[in-house]
């Protein structure tokens, strides 16, 4: 009798974080329907438990027989699911934590995801994935400070984190938790939060049980191990639901990592210009930087920084569609790439949660 083939210990998926900024809104490309073997029940149209959203970053399995390289495989899946032909892509990170796909608890392979970051312009989408552009800050609402401290921080996050700190089993553990909260969200004596610590903030909220994915994973862990399911009150679920829209698997974690990468690169790489048209006004440039960092910038200081760094040059024309006084148009001065190794627009600090 032939032996039943054993399941592989791991599976490799290719994930795309495709970002655009449109009308001062940072957006990410999201799909909902998948046909490949790694698709979750929700992505296949089945009824899923609360928190198991079908919304996912475009992804698919790496097939060595079909894909000559990882990048070509990524491009194939994105084209199939969204209809988009990707421009330049950059590898973001490889995510391979145990149980990041809860199906691993039921004996399925460990899912290792190679994620790529793509900066582009928003265009219509098609394909098989029911794809759409989705505002990034709907998933990560605590990261957008452009209108002041996000209301969700005072209403839900700070009280939730305070309960988490108080629930620590020892004074030392409580002190460590309090320090993490201060560093991540800029409370107490730690000073302003670092805009690049996006992944730290999401992982803290996950560990504290303040996002729907954490509640979903805890239920599935209990069911898989035969343990008692954690008690999740209606208030607990409502609180988590109010702290951003969930995504499939750990896609919100991947998105948080990508946002942090983009913010960090602003200081030393001209990535912001990939999100702008060839000719732009300085106000358009400022608004895109603000959209990515989630902060408001001082207009004159920003323009002084840009001009002193010689990052842009005038094109000799003015914007005619704008109301009021026409604004001068500029373009990225590409010669700067060969003049010095680090080329960026600077990185503002996030205001503290007082």
Descriptive notes:
This protein has 3 domains: 10-140, Nucleoside Triphosphate Pyrophosphohydrolase, CATH 3.90.79.10; 146-241, no CATH class; 267-339, Arc Repressor Mutant, subunit A, CATH 1.10.10. The chain is globular, with a radius of gyration of 22 Å. It has 11 helices and 8 strands. The termini are far apart. 38% of the residues are buried. With 354 residues, it is an alpha+beta fold. Helix 4 runs antiparallel to helix 5 and helix 5 (198-207) packs antiparallel against helix 8. The strands form 2 sheets. Strands 1, 2, 3, 4, 5 and 6 form a 6-stranded mixed beta sheet that branches. Strands 7-8 form a two-stranded antiparallel sheet.
What is the compact description of this entry?
This protein has 354 residues and is an alpha+beta fold. It contains eleven helices and eight strands. The chain has three domains: 10-140, Nucleoside Triphosphate Pyrophosphohydrolase; 146-241, no CATH class; 267-339, Winged helix-like DNA-binding domain superfamily/Winged helix DNA-binding domain (Arc Repressor Mutant, subunit A).
Indicate the mean pLDDT. Answer: 90
CATH class category label of the largest domain: Alpha Beta
Number of strands: 8
Helical content (DSSP H or I, runs of 4+):
25-40%
Quote the beta fraction: 15-25%
N- to C-terminal distance: 69 Å
The CATH topology of the largest domain: Nucleoside Triphosphate Pyrophosphohydrolase
Sheet/helix structural class: alpha+beta
Q: DSSP helix count?
A: 11
């Amino acid at each position: 009798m032939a032996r039943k083939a054993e399941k592989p210990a791991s599976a490799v998926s290719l994930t795309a974080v495709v970002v655009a900024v449109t009308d001062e809104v940072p957006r990410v490309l999201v799909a909902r329907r998948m046909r490949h073997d790694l698709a979750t029940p929700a992505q296949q149209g089945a009824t899923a438990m609360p928190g198991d959203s079908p919304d996912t970053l475009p992804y698919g399995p790496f097939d060595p027989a079909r894909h000559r390289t990882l990048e070509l495989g990524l491009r194939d899946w994105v084209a199939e699911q969204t209809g988009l032909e990707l421009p330049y892509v950059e590898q973001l990170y490889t995510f391979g934590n145990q149980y990041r796909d809860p199906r691993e608890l039921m004996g399925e392979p460990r899912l290792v995801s190679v994620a790529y970051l793509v900066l582009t312009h928003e265009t219509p989408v098609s394909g098989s994935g029911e794809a759409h552009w989705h505002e990034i800050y709907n998933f990560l609402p605590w990261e957008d400070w452009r209108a002041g401290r996000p209301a969700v921080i005072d209403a839900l996050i700070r009280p939730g984190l305070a309960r988490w700190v108080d629930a620590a089993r020892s004074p030392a553990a409580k002190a460590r938790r309090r320090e993490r909260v201060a560093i991540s969200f800029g409370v107490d004596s730690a000073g302003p939060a670092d805009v690049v610590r996006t992944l730290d903030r999401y992982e803290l909220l996950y560990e504290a049980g303040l996002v729907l994915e954490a509640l979903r994973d805890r239920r599935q862990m209990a069911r898989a191990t035969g343990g008692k399911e954690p008690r999740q009150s209606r208030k607990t679920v409502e609180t988590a639901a109010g702290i951003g829209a969930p995504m499939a698997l750990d896609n919100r974690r991947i998105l948080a990592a990508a946002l942090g990468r983009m913010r960090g690169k602003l200081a030393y790489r001209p990535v912001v210009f990939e999100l702008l048209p060839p000719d732009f006004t300085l106000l358009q440039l400022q608004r895109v930087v603000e959209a990515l960092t989630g902060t408001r910038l001082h207009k004159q200081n920003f323009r002084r920084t840009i001009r002193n760094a010689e990052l842009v040059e005038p094109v000799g024309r003015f914007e005619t569609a704008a109301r009021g006084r026409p604004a001068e148009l500029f373009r990225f001065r590409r010669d700067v790439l060969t003049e010095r190794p680090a080329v960026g627009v600077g990185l503002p600090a996030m205001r503290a949660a007082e």
